[in-house]
Automatic annotation (TrEMBL):
It comes from the Bacteria. It comes from Paracoccus seriniphilus. This is DUF1153 domain-containing protein. GO terms for molecular function: sequence-specific DNA binding. Pfam families: DUF1153.
Protein backbone atom coordinates (compact mmCIF):
# COMPACT_ATOMS: atom_id res chain seq x y z
CA UNK A 1 0.00 0.00 0.00
CA UNK A 2 1.28 3.45 -0.90
CA UNK A 3 0.59 6.59 1.08
CA UNK A 4 0.05 9.78 -0.90
CA UNK A 5 2.57 12.49 0.01
CA UNK A 6 1.06 15.72 1.22
CA UNK A 7 2.39 18.94 2.67
CA UNK A 8 -0.21 18.88 5.44
CA UNK A 9 0.11 16.78 8.59
CA UNK A 10 -1.52 13.34 8.64
CA UNK A 11 -2.65 13.78 12.22
CA UNK A 12 -3.16 16.75 14.50
CA UNK A 13 -3.43 16.87 18.26
CA UNK A 14 -6.18 19.10 19.60
CA UNK A 15 -5.75 21.10 22.82
CA UNK A 16 -7.88 18.57 24.72
CA UNK A 17 -5.38 15.83 23.78
CA UNK A 18 -7.60 14.20 21.15
CA UNK A 19 -5.82 13.09 17.98
CA UNK A 20 -7.64 13.94 14.75
CA UNK A 21 -6.88 12.14 11.48
CA UNK A 22 -8.40 12.18 8.00
CA UNK A 23 -10.24 8.97 8.95
CA UNK A 24 -12.04 10.90 11.70
CA UNK A 25 -13.62 13.32 9.23
CA UNK A 26 -17.31 12.79 8.53
CA UNK A 27 -18.35 11.18 5.22
CA UNK A 28 -19.09 13.55 2.34
CA UNK A 29 -22.78 12.67 2.44
CA UNK A 30 -23.57 13.26 6.06
CA UNK A 31 -26.36 14.51 8.24
CA UNK A 32 -24.91 17.56 9.94
CA UNK A 33 -24.94 17.42 13.71
CA UNK A 34 -22.94 19.68 16.01
CA UNK A 35 -20.19 17.12 16.63
CA UNK A 36 -19.50 16.59 12.91
CA UNK A 37 -19.50 20.33 12.25
CA UNK A 38 -16.99 20.78 15.08
CA UNK A 39 -14.70 18.09 13.63
CA UNK A 40 -14.60 19.87 10.26
CA UNK A 41 -13.97 23.27 11.90
CA UNK A 42 -11.15 21.82 14.04
CA UNK A 43 -9.62 20.00 11.05
CA UNK A 44 -9.38 23.30 9.17
CA UNK A 45 -8.27 25.26 12.24
CA UNK A 46 -5.37 22.89 12.96
CA UNK A 47 -4.30 22.37 9.34
CA UNK A 48 -5.49 18.83 8.71
CA UNK A 49 -7.74 20.06 5.91
CA UNK A 50 -7.61 23.32 3.96
CA UNK A 51 -10.63 25.61 4.05
CA UNK A 52 -11.19 25.30 0.30
CA UNK A 53 -10.88 21.53 0.46
CA UNK A 54 -13.41 21.34 3.30
CA UNK A 55 -15.89 23.57 1.49
CA UNK A 56 -15.52 21.60 -1.75
CA UNK A 57 -15.61 18.21 -0.04
CA UNK A 58 -18.77 18.95 1.94
CA UNK A 59 -20.49 21.35 -0.48
CA UNK A 60 -20.45 24.25 1.97
CA UNK A 61 -20.81 27.92 1.10
CA UNK A 62 -18.48 30.60 2.49
CA UNK A 63 -21.29 31.98 4.64
CA UNK A 64 -22.24 28.61 6.09
CA UNK A 65 -18.68 27.65 6.97
CA UNK A 66 -17.95 31.12 8.37
CA UNK A 67 -21.02 30.83 10.59
CA UNK A 68 -19.70 27.52 11.98
CA UNK A 69 -16.27 29.04 12.67
CA UNK A 70 -17.75 32.13 14.33
CA UNK A 71 -20.15 30.08 16.44
CA UNK A 72 -17.33 27.92 17.79
CA UNK A 73 -15.04 30.91 18.32
CA UNK A 74 -17.63 33.02 20.16
CA UNK A 75 -19.70 30.44 22.04
CA UNK A 76 -18.03 27.05 21.79
CA UNK A 77 -19.19 23.84 20.10
CA UNK A 78 -22.64 23.96 21.74
CA UNK A 79 -23.52 26.89 19.46
CA UNK A 80 -23.41 24.54 16.45
CA UNK A 81 -26.56 22.74 17.60
CA UNK A 82 -29.51 23.63 15.40
CA UNK A 83 -31.78 23.86 18.45
CA UNK A 84 -29.46 26.48 19.97
CA UNK A 85 -29.14 28.85 16.99
CA UNK A 86 -31.65 31.38 18.35
CA UNK A 87 -29.80 31.56 21.65
CA UNK A 88 -26.44 32.33 20.03
CA UNK A 89 -27.58 34.30 16.97
CA UNK A 90 -26.31 37.86 16.75
CA UNK A 91 -29.25 40.18 16.80
Amino acid sequence: MFVKKTSRPRTVTLPNGQILTMADLPPTTTRWVARRKEIVVRAVEYGLLSRDEAMRRYGLSDEEFDSWINAVKLHGPAALKVTATKRYRQG
